[in-house]
């Protein structure tokens, strides 16, 4: 049984497993190359006019988007 099925089975029967879900998300964040940090950078840029760095730009230049 895979880890997603371990979490999915109780959820289908309306059992809440907040800690188990958090553990799975933490593990996925540690083992994936594209993690959720890009989403946090985008949210910071949207709400606070912070800048972000693009992964396809090796120069490390900072960008800011005018969000509409």
What would your notes on this structure say?
The structure is a single chain. With 68 residues, the protein is mainly alpha-helical. It is built from 3 helices and 2 strands; from the N terminus they run αααββ. Strands 1-2 form a two-stranded antiparallel ribbon. A hairpin with an 8-residue loop joins strand 1 (52-53) and strand 2 (62-63). The longest helix has 14 residues, at 18-31. The protein starts with a helix and ends in a 5-residue tail after the last strand.
Identify the notable features of this structure and list them briefly.
53% helix, mainly alpha, two-stranded antiparallel ribbon, 6% strand, 68 residues, elongated, 3 helices, 2 strands
Any low-confidence stretches, pLDDT <50, length ≥5? Answer: none
Radius of gyration: 17 Å
- Quick one: biggest sheet? 2 strands, antiparallel
Instruction: Measure the end-to-end span.
Output: 44 Å
Percent in helix:
40-55%
Structural class: mainly alpha
Task: Produce the secondary structure layout.
Elements: H1 3-12, H2 18-31, H3 37-48, E1 52-53, E2 62-63
Antiparallel strand pairs: 1-2
Quick description:
By secondary structure, the chain is mainly alpha-helical. Helix content is 53%, strand content 6%.
């Amino acid at each position: 049984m895979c880890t997603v099925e371990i979490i999915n089975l109780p959820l289908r029967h309306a059992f809440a497993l907040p800690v188990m879900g958090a553990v799975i998300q933490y593990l996925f964040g540690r083992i994936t190359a594209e993690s959720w940090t890009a989403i946090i950078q985008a949210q910071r840029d949207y709400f606070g006019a912070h800048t972000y760095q693009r992964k396809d730009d090796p120069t490390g230049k900072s960008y800011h988007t005018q969000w509409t």
